[in-house]
Amino acid sequence: MSYLRVPSYGSSSSASWKYDVFINFHNEDTGKNFTENLYAALDRKGFKVFKGDKEFEREMPISLELDKTIEESRIFIVVFSKSYASSIQCLDELNKILECNKTMGQTVIPIFYYLEPDDPRYQIGVFHEAFDDHDVRFEVDMEKVQMWRKTLKEVSNISGFHLKDSPEEKYIEGVVKEISSKLSGSTSKFMNLKKLVAGVNFCVEKLLMKLETLRELSGYNPQLSYHFYIFFQLFSSTMRIQRVSSSTSAKHDVFLNFRGIDTRNNFTNHLYGHLIREGIKVFKDNLELEIGKPILPELVNAIEESRISIVVFSKNYVSSPWCLDELVKIVECKNTRGQSVIPIFYDVNPSLVITKLEVAIGQHQKVFADHIENVQTWRNALMEITNLFGRELKDSPEAEFIEGVVKEISSKLSGSTSTSKFMNLKKLVAGVNSRLENSLMKVETPRVAWGQSTMISPCLFLKNFLSPAHFLAHVND
């Protein structure tokens, strides 16, 4: 995939960049969903990202401060969305972005968010309507409008990412991977935490081998033997990282109950991805059954074998008999097995769910004329779950909202024996580093005699061995 990048004599790898990525987007369209989740994904990888959330006055030019921020960013992500061209700020930022690309060599990556590239390229569809408005508003300054048109066409001609019906989480993963490849070697060496942990594991294994050898040799020296005994006790307790097997029959930590057409490719997809990253075992079914067909036995088993069920109520949730049948099973497991249920109200409040049910019931009664008893069962299940304390999305940024849900799930699972006690990898690495440092401080000794020669003490050796530089030497780029 190629992007617009012009070699610049003024910029080099040694250039001082304040931000790795600058995101240009229309807040009204994607600020609280797609762009918020993209920002969170980039931030998790250790990138420095600028994402302005404020919308300025429509006729006001972008500030000098924002101008400078654009100049100090290495990569620009331009999120074209339906209302993008109606924002004067977006268009002015885009002019500056293209200027920096041509004069300083920064990379531009366009994302076409549920748009065809031809829409901004030729200003057709919703872009045509926006520019009709600009033509009237800036009648005395048509040069500005023409500049916007030219910039839009030029940036839209760049090869980028086109989001249609793809799951957003997977799509964002592809964007982040592309950014990572472009910034590899130029930003934080800790962008990929998994690689860091792999390096730590490698060094720990090598360290244990060396310690075993030194321990055997220390048997000839009582003083060294004492120090190694102390260190082994501390080090062993520090590195005793294990997954505790489940004492229950739970196969999954979380079962996701949701309406596919509403949230499969956006909210639920992001929620699923975040839970998986935290080491939580999640069941998320991606099929849609035909109306009138009962839920599959494997789905019944999945619900029974889950510790927590998350029910994502959305606008079309109650129009799915399948969702409602799953909900009935979830309520059954809640009442008979003590399973936890967390309702999420996605762009719909609890009372609206019940209201929509009454409308949908008329449709379902026609379809299930021979199974009227199902309707009352659905109604009872909905009433019970919507009366539980849940989370309502409203106008919250999705990434922040999802983080809150995941924290609640982690909290519920943290005291259990069914999942890893180290679901948060960042906390694990931080904890290991902290404990190792404390261990080394406790047993640090000066130089000691070993036989006829003088060697650096075991703990000073270990301190060098366990240094970040040594870890990084074993981290593949």
What does this structure look like?
This protein has 477 residues and is of the alpha/beta class. α4 packs across α7 and α9 packs antiparallel against α10 (222-238). The longest helix has 26 residues, at 193-218. The radius of gyration is 28 Å and the shape is flat. It contains 20 helices and twelve strands. It folds into three domains: 19-183, Rossmann fold, CATH 3.40.50.10140; 193-241 and 424-473; 252-414, Toll/interleukin-1 receptor homology (TIR) domain (Rossmann fold, 3-Layer(aba) Sandwich), CATH 3.40.50.
- Could you say how many structural domains there are in total? 3
Widest beta sheet: strand line-up: 2-1-3-4-5
Low-pLDDT residue intervals, each spanning 5 or more residues: 1-14, 55-59, 187-192, 237-248, 288-293, 417-426, 442-459, 465-477
CATH superfamily of the largest domain: Toll/interleukin-1 receptor homology (TIR) domain
Shape: flat
* CATH topology (level 3) name of the largest domain: Rossmann fold
What does the main sheet amount to?
5 strands, parallel
Percent strand: 5-15%
Number of strands: 12
Regarding CATH, which class of the largest domain?
Alpha Beta
Structural class: alpha/beta
